[in-house]
Amino acid sequence: METLRLIVVFIHLIGFAVLFGAWAAQAFGGKRQFTRIMDWGLGIALLAGLALSAPWGISYDLNYVKIGVKLVVLVIIGGMLGMGSARQKRGEAVPAGVFWLVGLLTLANAGMGLLWR
Length: 117
Description:
This protein is mainly alpha-helical. The protein has helices spanning 2-29, 36-52, 64-89, 96-115. It is elongated and about 50 Å long.
């Protein structure tokens, strides 16, 4: 069971890597737009994170506060991606603060997963 859990953790990290990688490509490529790849990364991270929040027959208690905070941050990222994508469809630019905050919150969420014990 532990091997399966580690595979899901790996998939969860891949989701964040896809989200952050797509964001970084846009940030340092000069366009500063939200892409569908970011949405895919967010979805992968969300689904794998929800799977990880289930007790997998582990011998320790889950940190539900950490899980809740990470979920709230992920929902905020999703809201900003949705808002920015809607603005892009109307031909408007994504606000710079929103764009940079998506990258910062993505890094913060990954950092919380790694550092918060």
